[in-house]
Amino acid sequence: MNHPATEVLRFVLDGEVVELADVDPTRTVLQFLREDLGRCGTKEGCAEGDCGACTVVVAGPGEDGRLEARAVNACIHFLPLLDGKELLTVESLSAGNGELHPVQRAMIDCHGSQCGFCTPGFVMSLFALYKNDPAPDRVAIDDALAGNLCRCTGYRPIVAAARDMYALAPGQAGDWLHSPGRADRADEDEKRRVARLRSIAHDDTLALAHDGRRFFAPRSAAALAGLMAEHPDATLTAGGTDVGLWVTKELREFDTLIYTGHVEELRTIETDDEAIRVGAAVTFSELLPELNRHFPTLEELWLRFASPPIRNAATLGGNVANGSPIGDSMPALLALDATLVLQSATGLRELPLKDFYLGYRQTALRPGEFVARIDIPRLAPGDRLQSYKVSKRFDQDISAVCGAFRLRVVDGRIDDARVAFGGMAAVPKRAPACERALTGAAFTADSLAAAADALDEDFEPISDMRASDEYRRRVAKNLLTRCYRETAASDEGRAVSRVYGYGRRRRA
Asked: How far is CA 68 from the centre of its chain?
């Protein structure tokens, strides 16, 4: 397969089309803004997508033809991923005459800034909320700000700004930047922005080269399979939320980087009577409404999975293929008996997720093969599903233990059981001894306590900076007990108390 040595990366910034050739595939948006353009409003704090000081907004045409604005972390977002999109920074928001955006004005009026270092990131997260939710409640505001850290001002005045910014909006639409929420119809400025983005979009594979290193962004699964056959050692990236850390923290370089985010077949969600079929390049933000509709007991897990800027870039396929033993999606997928559809130039094959992980960061992918889809079976009658994440911090923290449990209860007995954990072994793993102890047992506290002891046969956890081995053993058993108490309480019609940490998640 032949590709031109160099093509041109095109995106929009402040109404102008930016065209770049000879682009370093792993140059971040943050580096480009600060070092190439001298736009220093976007800050570098952690360089790993945790603090939010680097937050920018990337906008692109949605399926409905409207402009979708998503906050992302510029510190781990590679520059070539902007192709065909519009980039907005804190400098983009004020009007040409210097008038501040309603979000900026609200931050000033509510005293939402002190040292000011984190302020541009907060402004951009609030701008994304301003464009996507015309009337957010406290839960939505807290979630929108979950990826931004403030060390001096505190969050009360920033939350106040999130509430007041709508009252400072212009009286009528006409300027997409300054108009809040999702209006019933697109205004002329929004239509012009969408038309401009469509005019610069590539119809086929984007191929960039820099100092012998290459970047490809194919548009079809067949093109992706061809590239993988040609470059079997290439590094695949979707949102780059982990690959970005390999660059910023480990200083790794890649000869060939292939981006999956433009592959149409990998960007679909299909639901039938048997399963939810999720393309590997679907972001978590796109997927969560569908997952929460079918698996409402997993909502807290997904809220704690990551902040919106990470969820806007990260994909389920990337989380699965990455193979980390502490990836939070895998225990739930294992408990649901998910199946992977793997693709290469020679065709497709299906593989149960439980057979995918072979060792630490080792998977059953063959050379030239990639994850194309994840099939998640729907719950059957009698299924009770729970998943819990235990970490030192409620938001933005890696799990010490993540457990998932699916118990099928028929006439008071457990007809089928799936128990899976992350953080307990070198791979995300089911607990076969525990599952055997549960299957056929009465659905009682005593039965689940006995089955919890069987977890000692399934796992030999290690001690590390997140938790000791003994802590992990005890927590894993306690989570199984919690699963019983919550599902039994639901059976009896009692309200189930949910732990949302620091009282943040369920405030009115």
From this structure: 16
pLDDT band, very low/low/confident/very high, at 395 (cuts 50, 70, 90): confident
* pLDDT range class, residue 490, cuts 50, 70, 90: low
- How many Cβ atoms are within 10 Å of 497's Cβ, its own excluded? 9
- For tokens 């793997």, name the residue: 342
Count other Cβ atoms within 10 Å, centred on residue 446. Answer: 10
DSSP conformational letter for 501? S
Helix (H) or strand (E) holding 59: strand 55-61
HEC string of 197-223 equals HHHHCCCCCEEEEECCEEEEECCCHHH
For the four alpha carbons of 142, 147, 153 and 158, in that order, the dihedral sign comes to negative
- Backbone φ and ψ for 238, nearest 5 degrees, come out as -110, -80
Among the listed residues 54, 46, 115, 57, the one whose alpha carbon sits nearest the alpha carbon of residue 85? 57
Which residues lie across from 271 on neighbouring strands?
276
> Model's pTM, two decimal places?
0.91
Residue of 394, 389, 503 lying closest to 146 (CA atoms): 394
Q: Looking at the predicted structure, is the pLDDT value of residue 401 above 60?
A: yes
pLDDT at 495: 43
